[in-house]
Design brief:
By secondary structure, the chain is an alpha/beta fold. 38% of the residues lie in helices and 18% in strands. It folds into 3 domains: 10-71, Arc Repressor Mutant, subunit A, CATH 1.10.10; 85-185 and 320-346, Response regulator (Rossmann fold), CATH 3.40.50; 187-316, Rossmann fold (3-Layer(aba) Sandwich), CATH 3.40.50.2300.
C-alpha cells in the first residue's frame, strides 16, 4: 500500500482558487481576461486555461461566441454574498494626491475596516478621458466593488456610473442632472465669501486663479466668485477668472501675464493648496509686499501652509469630518439603505492669516 501524499498540481490549485472566487462573487457576469487572471494568480496562461477548462467541465463557466467566459449561476447556492470592497477612483498617482485628500483617504480606510470593508485605490487618467466608457467597463468588471468612491470626476464619468446603475459616491460635487450621493465643500459659498473679503478691504481688481477643469466644484467656485460682484460694493470692481494647466510653469506664466500690465490685479483667490503657495511665493519673488501690494486667499488648505510666511489666509477643512461623512454614506450604500440624492456640503472655517490686508496703494 502506498502511503504517498497526493500533492495537487498547479492546475488544481488554480482551479480551486477560481472556485473560491466564484463562490465569493469576486466577479459578476463574466470572468476577466486571461492576461488579468494569470497576473492575479501568478501563473502562466496555459496553466490558467487548463484550470478554466476544469471549471467549464463542472458547469461553472460557459464560453460565449466572443470567447468570453460567462459565469453560470448555480441553483441552490443561496443569496450571493455582498461585495465588501470600496473602490476609489483618482486620476492622480498617490505621490501627487494633495495631503488633505491623503489624510481623509487614510482615515476612511480605518473607518471602513471597522465595518468589515476594505478600501482599494485605482489611480489612472484613462478613466478620466473624454471617452472613458470602455475603460470604466473593463475596470468595474475585472475589479468589482460593493461601491465606488469617485474623486475629481468629470461629467462623463459621473453619467456613466448613473447609467450603469453601479453604487457610487462622489467625493466632490455632481454635475447638473447627476443623481449620485456626494460629499463636498460648499465652494460656491467659499468663493463668494472670499471675493467679499477682498472687496471690503478696498480691492477692485481681483483674480480667481484656478486650474482649467470640468469638475462641478470648480464650476461652482467660478459661479460663487462672480456672484460677489453683483452687489453695490462689487459693481465698480473688475473680476478676472484666469486658468492654468496645473503645472508650475503654467502658473508662473499666467501670473506673469496678469502682473505685467499697468493696472495689475491686487488680490488673488487661488484654488488648490499648491498653486496658492506658488502664487504667494511668486508675488514675493517679484518684489511685491503681501498683503499691502497684493493680497492672497487660498480656497483650499493643507498642513504645509503652516510653514509659509506670511501665513496664507485660507479655508480650513477637517479631513476627519470628510472621512466620516463619506464612510456613513458608503456603508449605507453597500447595505442598500441610501437614497441616491443624498448631497452633503461642508463649509470650511475661514482663517484670515497674514496675507489678507487693507488695500494701501491706489487701484
Amino acid at each position: 500500500m502506498s502511503l504517498a501524499i497526493h500533492r495537487p498540481s498547479l492546475v488544481e490549485q488554480a482551479a480551486e482558487a477560481l472556485r473560491q472566487a466564484l463562490q465569493e462573487r469576486t466577479w459578476i457576469g463574466r470572468m476577466p481576461g486571461e492576461r488579468e487572471l494569470s497576473r492575479q494568480l501568478n501563473i502562466s496562461r496555459p496553466t490558467l486555461r487548463a484550470a478554466l477548462e476544469l471549471l467549464r467541465a463542472e458547469g461553472r463557466l460557459k464560453v460565449s461566441p466572443g470567447r468570453q467566459r460567462v459565469i453560470v449561476k448555480r441553483a441552490g447556492g443561496g443569496a450571493p454574498l455582498r461585495l465588501r470592497t470600496v473602490g476609489v477612483l483618482t486620476p492622480l498617482p498617490l505621490q501627487e494626491i494633495p495631503p488633505f485628500a491623503l489624510c481623509w483617504m487614510d482615515r476612511l480606510r480605518e473607518l471602513l475596516a471597522q465595518a468589515g470593508l476594505q478600501l482599494e485605490i485605482h489611480s489612472g487618467r484613462r478613466w478620466y478621458s473624454r471617452r472613458p466608457e470602455k475603460d470604466l467597463a473593463a475596470l468595474t468588471e475585472q475589479a468589482p466593488a460593493g461601491a465606488w468612491l469617485l474623486f475629481m470626476t468629470n461629467e462623463r464619468m459621473q453619467r456613466w456610473f448613473v447609467e450603469s446603475k453601479l453604487p457610487a459616491v462622489l467625493s466632490g460635487s455632481g454635475h447638473p442632472g447627476i443623481e449620485l450621493p456626494s460629499v463636498d465643500f460648499d465652494y460656491r459659498a467659499v468663493c463668494r465669501h472670499a471675493a467679499g473679503q477682498f472687496l471690503r478691504r478696498g480691492h477692485r481688481r481681483i483674480v480667481l486663479l484656478m486650474q482649467a477643469s470640468d469638475t462641478a466644484g470648480d464650476r461652482e467656485s467660478e459661479a460663487g466668485f462672480l456672484e460677489a460682484f453683483q452687489t453695490r460694493a462689487g459693481a465698480a470692481a473688475n473680476a478676472i477668472v484666469a486658468h492654468h494647466d496645473g503645472t508650475p510653469e503654467s502658473i508662473r506664466q499666467r501670473l506673469h501675464g496678469l502682473l505685467g500690465v499697468a493696472a495689475a490685479p491686487t488680490a488673488f483667490l487661488v484654488a488648490r493648496s499648491m498653486p496658492a503657495l506658488m502664487t504667494a511665493s511668486e508675488l514675493l519673488r517679484r518684489g511685491l509686499h503681501v498683503p499691502s501690494d497684493a493680497a492672497v486667499i487660498a480656497r483650499d488648505s493643507d498642513h504645509f501652509h503652516e510653514y509659509f510666511s506670511p501665513q496664507l489666509a485660507r479655508y480650513r477643512a477637517d479631513p476627519e469630518m470628510h472621512a466620516r461623512r463619506l464612510s456613513r454614506i458608503l456603508i449605507h450604500l453597500i447595505g442598500e439603505a441610501l437614497h441616491r440624492s443624498n448631497r452633503i456640503r461642508i463649509m470650511p472655517k475661514f482663517f484670515p492669516g497674514e496675507s489678507l490686508g487693507e488695500m494701501r496703494r491706489s487701484s
